[in-house]
C-alpha cells in the first residue's frame, strides 16, 4: 500500500460582488511537494453566480479561472508565473487577494494519490450536480 504524503489544498471562490462577501466555490487547487504534484479542477456554475450578481461577466470569470489550470500545468501560454516551480506557483495562486476570484485559506492533509484527492475534493467542495 502506498505511503500517504502531505498535501496542501485551497478552494477557488468567485466573489461576484466583493463588497458583499458572498461567494460560490468554483474550483480546487492541490499541491504535494513530496509527490511533485500541482493540479486544479474548475467548475463554473453560471446559475449560482448570476443569482449573486445578474450582471456578472461569466465568460470573463471562466477565462480567468481556466488560467489557474494552465498555471498549474506550467503552460507557457499562461505567462511567466507558469514557469515558476510548482511550489512557487501554488503559493502565488493561493496568495490572498481582494478580487472577484479569491482563494480560501490553505488546508493540509495526507494522501497517497493526489490526483484522486483532487477529484474527490472537487466533487465534495465544488460540484453541484
From TrEMBL:
This is DUF3037 domain-containing protein. It comes from Granulicella mallensis.
